[in-house]
TrEMBL record:
Pfam families cross-referenced by the UniProt entry: MFS_1 (PF07690)
Alphabetized UniProt keyword annotations: Cell membrane, Membrane, Transmembrane, Transmembrane helix
Protein name as annotated: L-fucose:H+ symporter permease
GO molecular function, one term: fucose:proton symporter activity
Compartments in which it is found: Cell inner membrane
Membrane topology reported for the UniProt record: Multi-pass membrane protein
Keyword tRNA processing included in the entry's annotation: no
Xref: Gene3D superfamilies: MFS general substrate transporter like domains (1.20.1250.20)
Length: 456
């Protein structure tokens, strides 16, 4: 439910906010941006970002756990990511239409609710104890996260002055790796165990003993989701009682501008710059997901003395590097040309992945951590720059949803990498896929840099 809009002399909208107790004293401009950033609402919105980081990083734990328990190939284990990111792809457009006809806040609340439902599905899944049922639970979580990301990413870029939209989204995205680290820690201590690697422990057992131990290990996957459900419930209540600004483009005073889904999709399909951004985001998300999906596997392959719990330390390092990379990028972007910063990150990223492929020792795993640091600013910057190509802001919500749909790269690239690993017998060589992806990201920002020079 939204409050009645009032128009000031400049044609902006005052008091444009959703129902709630904690109020938002901002003025909205006709293009949907605000005269200033409401800091409490912005911080609360940014807290949503680590929540999908927790879910995504737990997938990296589950891939390793399920591979051993269900005796999966690298190709089959990667379907954890396919179920997860497939949910994003299928729900993003419907989520955008819900937001279009309601508010960003409504989208966030729906997302948190579905997220809780998906986490709860892990409990019956652990009793049925089949891989497909766990994939269904992950798909349900992804439905919630699709609503959450479709709402929060675009909203973060809109909830303040237009000239700070890219920086604002990058700052919100800086919270993401904190959630990723939390997810890995939950997985390390609540899912993984001490002793030999899980596949070795299972290999030493037979018959009922093996089945009982596998069931015990599946039960351990429930514990992180118990914690997550509690946090989500608290966040849901706080957001529900807080007023948020509308941040929708306006036409004729305080009337929201509208566009049909057909009109929007036709507009976006004709927008060459938007299409390039979608492709770059597809490749980036696929690369990020693939590297994180197989970092633990890479460590276990290169050092057979490691178990899953010890190998999880490399993922903690990867997400810490990701956070540092984002923080450094925010500083650089505030001082230098954004496209130059991202091009430099991309070139270094290609070189770091080639090192992983070519150097056959544990230093390759440490270089995977460096690679994660170079992921830092990519998603938020590509998202914001692609959103900026939508000149007609009536298409903003659906355009943001289509960018979120490019997350389907996370369902495709890891499967390709897993297939290459199975075919070649080399987990290390399979990382070559990610070098190609980073090169595409570099190509995208090189194009942006060249175009900006031509305009200048």
């Amino acid at each position: 439910m939204s409050a009645t809009h009032t128009t000031n002399e400049a044609g902006a909208v005052a008091g444009n906010r959703s129902f709630g107790i904690i109020k938002d004293p901002t003025i909205q401009q006709k293009d949907g941006y605000l005269d200033r950033t409401p800091w409490f609402q912005y911080i609360l919105l940014s807290i949503c970002f680590p929540m999908w980081g927790v879910a995504a990083s737990l997938n990296d734990i589950l891939i390793t756990q399920f591979k051993a328990i269900f005796t999966l190939s690298d190709f089959a284990s990667a379907f954890v990511q396919s179920a997860f990111y497939g949910g994003y792809f299928l729900i993003a457009i419907p989520a955008s239409r819900v937001i279009r006809h309601s508010t960003y806040k409504t989208g966030i609340l729906i997302g948190l609710t579905f997220y809780i439902v998906g986490c709860s599905m892990f409990f019956p899944a652990s009793h049925v104890a089949t891989y497909s049922v766990f994939l269904a639970a992950l798909f349900a979580i992804a439905v919630g996260l699709s609503f959450l990301e479709t709402s929060a990413n675009t909203y973060s870029s809109m909830i303040g002055p237009k000239d700070k939209s890219t920086l604002r989204l990058n700052v919100s995205q800086t919270f993401y790796p904190l959630g990723s680290i939390a997810g890995i820690l939950l997985g390390k201590y609540l899912i993984f165990t001490d002793g030999d690697a899980l596949h070795k422990q299972l290999g030493d057992l037979e018959g009922e003993a093996k089945a009982a131990f596998a069931q015990e290990m599946l039960q351990r996957t429930l514990q992180p989701y118990m914690v997550i459900i509690g946090i989500l419930a608290i966040l849901l209540v706080i957001i529900a009682i807080t007023q948020f600004p509308h941040c929708k483009p306006l036409r004729e005073g305080a009337k929201e501008a509208q566009a049909s889904i057909g009109e929007t999709l036709s507009y976006l399909a004709r927008n060459a710059a938007f299409r390039k951004g979608i492709f770059a985001q597809f490749m980036y998300v696929g690369m990020q997901t693939a590297v994180w999906s197989f970092t633990i596997r890479l460590a276990l392959t290169l050092d057979t003395s490691l178990n899953e719990r010890n190998a999880a330390n490399f993922m903690i390092g990867a997400f810490a590097a990701f956070f540092i990379g984002k923080f450094v990028a925010n500083l650089l972007i505030s001082r230098f040309d954004t496209d130059k910063v991202l091009l430099a990150y991309s070139v270094l990223g290609v070189l770091s992945v080639l090192y992983i492929v070519m150097v056959p020792n544990m230093s390759a795993v440490y270089m995977a951590i460096v690679t994660s640091g170079l992921f830092g600013p990519c998603w938020a910057t590509i998202y914001s720059r692609t959103l900026d190509t939508i000149a007609d802001k009536r298409h903003q919500e659906t355009g943001g949803a289509v960018i979120v749909m490019s997350i389907i790269g996370g369902a495709v690239i890891p499967v390709i990498q897993g297939l290459i690993s199975d075919y070649t017998g080399s987990m290390q060589f399979s990382f070559i896929v990610n070098a190609v992806c980073f090169a595409v990201v570099g190509w995208y920002f090189l194009g942006k840099l060249t175009a900006s020079k031509k305009v200048a």
